[in-house]
Specification:
Radius of gyration: 22 Å
Strand content: under 5%
Largest sheet: none
Distance between the termini: 36 Å
Shape: globular
């Protein structure tokens, strides 16, 4: 049997071009932090105003399209073939799916974001800051940001990746996606996709790591009295990078699976602690009340551009930069979600990732957001003042510290922050290594040295981002990296539609010989005719 002499070797053109750009970015941001922040912010607002409508339309189409796909006959297609069996139990699959996609996002923003929206709502909301109406708007909008559309955006485009890897038994690569998108062999487009994914994902994960580092720094300050500084952030970045690189090298079974299970238990414990030790009745009532508001206003909450208020930058500062992060994460999170989805139907894959994972995040944001609103509105604790003076990363510790057993909760929270962004950095480093080596097989882990290198890159970039501009620098990178990545999302959508039609037709004919070459040839013949 003929083997590829390049099998298992690094795609040097893709890796070194992306690594070179990342290195240059790290150096420039580190040397010119103030100028970098100004440039990034300017690009954020310029790109947000010109392309924001397209990004919002894209995420809504993917969300609705995914629900439609799950409801049709194509939802019955099983990833890996009609008789494929799952590699993981339902619990392990769900915990890895949740933790592998959310990172530090909901931990960092769930408390501080509702207060921002409560006190400074966007003009288009038509509510006065600090009012009852603003409170409802703030919590429901935060729940919306971190729930169903986010996870739909990760899972729906990933369907084709799962089919390519397990049903067609192809290597882990975006070359087939590029070919299916244009209907012919297109090597240069595949290389471009890989370059964009490597560059964008390293930047995106660095953003999540950045806010995680700030959160841990604030926790250490609260517990040990060591003030936050660039030096402290550097030490934290080094330690955390070592932890998640070690976990990534251990592989999915020993690393991500165990860490995801622990993180899920910690999430549940913290939620129950807030419920039991806080104003339980108010939190439950307010959370489910806002869940209803959010579910009945999904289209309205998706398309927020503040077009009649040109001086109001809320959409760029919040919703658009979140969607930008979804676009950045989507292609590589999709590889991870696909890797653990063998034996699941497309319907299960979409609905579990969208409804279960999204629902959990919505509840998390509702519970923490309701707690913050309660403290602010009753005057028991000025959360808004704390955010302004100490930063969003510090406020959650002040909240936890006000509860019984507060110090214990703070320690658990710090550990959870660490493990939560390890659960997204681990699969990201592995998936990036997968797509930058030749003939990477799903059965084998990618080279450990490559995974380690990506981990170090992401750790360095995370540190220089927060050292240059804190959370503001982190937020700007997401949308700037996300806009070009929309090309890959479009390609994933097109290739998904073409692939599910082909697979369903083969299943109906009783033919289990799935070949991408036949699929491509079929589309070429249609074009000729």
């Amino acid at each position: 049997m003929e083997t590829n002499s390049k099998s298992g070797k690094l795609k040097k053109g893709v890796f070194f071009s992306a690594a070179g750009c990342l290195t240059l970015g790290i150096i420039l941001i580190g040397i010119f932090p103030d100028q970098a922040y100004e440039v990034l912010t300017g690009l954020l607002y310029a790109w947000g105003k010109s392309t924001g409508w397209l990004i919002e339309l894209l995420i809504f189409v993917v969300f609705v399209g995914g629900l439609v796909l799950a409801a049709t006959k194509y939802g019955n297609i099983r990833i890996g073939g009609k008789y494929a069996k799952p590699d993981y139990s339902m619990f392990s699959w769900i915990t890895m799916s949740i933790c592998g996609a959310i990172g530090t996002g909901i931990i960092f923003w769930a408390l501080g974001e509702p207060i921002y929206h409560y006190m400074c709502p966007p003009s288009v909301a038509g509510v006065e800051g600090g009012s009852v109406e603003a409170a409802y708007w703030a919590v429901s909008q935060t729940m919306f940001h971190w729930s169903f559309e986010q996870f739909a955006f990760y899972s729906v485009p990933a369907v084709v990746i799962g089919l390519i890897i397990f049903t067609f038994k192809e290597k882990v690569s975006y070359d087939p996606v590029a070919n299916l998108a244009v209907g012919r062999e297109c090597p240069w487009l595949g290389n471009l996709f890989h370059f964009m994914i490597v560059f964008g994902m390293c930047a995106g994960v660095a953003c999540s790591m950045g806010v995680g580092i700030m959160q841990i720094g604030a926790g250490i300050e609260n517990v040990a009295g060591i003030g936050q500084s660039k030096f402290v952030w550097f030490i934290i970045a080094a330690v955390v990078t070592f932890i998640f690189v070690f976990s990534a090298v251990a592989g999915i079974e020993k690393g991500v699976k165990r860490m995801s299970a622990f993180t899920s238990y910690a999430f549940i414990f913290l939620l129950l602690a807030i419920l039991v030790l806080g104003p339980t009745v108010f939190i439950l009532n307010n959370t489910f009340e806002n869940l209803g508001i959010m579910l009945t206003h999904i289209p309205e909450r998706t398309f927020i551009m503040n077009s009649m208020y040109p001086d109001d930058t809320w959409s760029m500062d919040w919703w658009l930069q979140y969607v930008g992060s979804f676009v950045v994460y989507g292609p590589i999170i999709g590889v991870f979600l696909a890797r653990i989805a063998k034996g699941r139907t497309i319907r299960e894959f979409i609905l579990v990732n969208t409804a279960v994972s999204g629902g959990f995040c919505a509840l998390w944001c509702g519970i923490f957001g309701s707690m913050a609103i309660y403290l602010q509105s009753t005057g028991q604790f000025d959360v808004w003042k704390a955010v302004q003076e100490d930063g969003m990363q510090s406020t959650v510790y002040q909240l936890l510290g006000s509860l019984p057993c507060g110090k214990i909760l703070i320690v658990i929270f710090i550990i959870t922050v660490c493990t939560s962004f390890c659960t997204i950095a681990d699969p990201a480093a592995s998936a990036l290594a997968n797509v930058t080596v030749h003939d990477s097989s799903i059965e084998n882990d990618p080279p450990k040295k490559i995974k380690m290198l990506y981990g170090i890159f992401m750790g360095c970039l995370a540190y220089v981002l927060i050292a240059s501009g804190g959370q503001n620098a982190v937020k700007t990178v997401w949308i700037i990296a996300g806009v070009p990545m929309m090309i890959i999302i479009f390609a994933l959508i097109i290739s998904t539609l073409r692939t599910v039609r082909y697979v369903k037709a083969k299943e109906d004919a009783g033919d289990e010989d799935y070949k991408l070459s036949d699929l491509l040839q079929g589309y070429r013949r249609k074009k000729v005719s």
